[in-house]
Fold this sequence. Notes:
The chain is built from eleven helices and 15 strands. By secondary structure, it is of the alpha/beta class. It folds into two domains: 2-117 and 289-319, Quinone Oxidoreductase, Chain A, domain 1 (Alpha-Beta Complex), CATH 3.90.180; 120-262, Rossmann fold, CATH 3.40.50.720. Strands 3, 4, 5, 6, 7, 14 and 15 form a seven-stranded mixed sheet that branches. A six-stranded parallel sheet has the order 10-9-8-11-12-13, with helices on both faces. Helix 8 links the parallel strand 12 (224-232) and strand 13. The model has no long low-confidence stretch (mean pLDDT 96). GO terms for molecular function: oxidoreductase activity. Pfam families: ADH_N (PF08240), ADH_zinc_N (PF00107).
Amino acid sequence: MKALVVSALSPDLSGTALADVPEPQEAADKVLIRVRAAALNYPDLLMTRGEYQLKPPLPFTPGMEVAGEVLAGDGFAAGTAVVAGTRLGGFADVVAVDVAAVRALPPHLSFAQGAAVGAAYLTAYVALVRLGAPRPDEWLLVHGATGGVGLAAVDLAHALGARVIATSRSPEKLATLAADYPVAATLPAPGFRDAVKELTGGDGADMVFDPVGGDVFDESTRCIAFGGRLLVVGFTSGRIATVSTNMPLIKGFSVIGVRAGEYGRRFPDRGRENLDAIWSLAASGRIRPRVHAEYPLADWRAAFDTMARSDMVGKLILVP
């Protein structure tokens, strides 16, 4: 079968290529899935460079989440449409997944939409619900709001009743976002501080969802409310920001790290509850994943380049 294989770590994807590899075999507690859609996430890109906290031994196949049809496995009839969290191995024709990580695809979602839910919405759920603990009508500032995880945070926040201020470097992408998802305001990033203060009556944002880091993080500390929660999700800007401890002391805010997958591994019962919650929201239509584009697996480089440039509104999908 075909799979995308990382045989050497490199900043330019030169160590990554499509290759013929053996198809996985049936095994106890595993489900074999014919992949029909696999979501590309920023950690997949980082793993090809060796810049992510998970550093699999070489060679490996990236791909954290898929949707497809069951070929074989306990608990699911052959042909059943399913979604699954894979952590690795998703960018392939067939993947073997732990049975506990597989669930039925909600019937109103396409394979691409199903693949777009898991990692992004799980990160948003752990950040906003488990760690941020939102109260009704709080102000939520979402950075990188047009990317996969940022858009998931915007969508989930609306379902939770928060008032959302969305930021991005691209006014065009913000316009696309605002046409599909209700937000209180869209702002450029950086350059949002004064507008956030004005929108919130001078208090600042109660929560900040930040997958960007760098200058955006720095500016967020200047417009967060007293008692606010600054949720650190990632560093797509390329710079890991620092903060002097007098800032959270004087302004009374918390800086909270978000690792949704690790949260579930540390607290398995809560991890299962988190997944049940996001898939219940998806099944009921209360959250609406947005697919920016679908790429054939053979065109994987174009998808990775789009991810590296952040030229998307929503999720990028690879189709074997």
